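Hey team,

Sharing the SDR family NAD(P)-dependent oxidoreductase run so nobody has to redo it. Sequence (266 residues) first:
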Amino acid sequence: MNPIATGKGLAVVTGASTGIGYELAKCAAQQGYDLVIAADEPQIQEAALKLKEFAVSVEAMQVDLATQDGVRRFTAGIAALGKPVDLLMANAGRGLGDSFLDEDLQQAQRVVDTNIIGTIALIHDIGNRMKTRGQGRILLTGSIAGFMPGSFQAVYNATKAFINSFSFALRDELKGTGVTVTCLMPGPTDTEFFERADMLDTPVGQGKKDDPAFVAKVGFEAMMDGEGDVVSGWKNKLMSAAANLTPAGMLANQHRKMAEPEQTKN
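Structure output:
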């Protein structure tokens, strides 16, 4: 990476090639922030070209943040720019459908490595730099899925429960440091998530979904306002509120109705 131009500030966005991550990067660019964006696919370069239309500097890295080496290369690249990170939007995530025992174990473990291991490693590195500086904003993309046991999406929902919980704890730990932590908790969103998770033959995969631009705008504004958490969309707000009052066994059964593949139903 080359030294980045001086703009309003520097925003780092992971999982930024498409979907919510791209739209979060777009929100930052529209506000005049220079960008460092990452994804594990070559489309990240196409995203960078589009984001440069906002007259900000954009550095793109194709890197696998599910691996320790990928996180190290990414954080080293950011440090080499010589510019502090003002905004960190840890959005990289991976899903996986089907019943747990029918899933490929390596793919299931990759969901954990991406959603949890890589995320906390990245935040530990950049978060420490923010804390030392006494300034910074962190946004984690959690999910309303973290409020319910995810039958036929068990590993993914469990990782989002971790992210939701982790964000609240980290926010409390960072009180008075000048660093804020916000958790964005969307519901089903119109991205490539369901195709990549092999969930197109499920009711949730075929159902109506939220606009990723709307979801990102809600999350970005909440982060900039220093809010602790935000659920995007009134239907998702109702679902998350109801989940807090519903027994776990009932929630798991409700989730089955949304996420069970058609071919497994008899």
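The longest strand covers residues 179-185.

Ping me if you want the raw files.
A.
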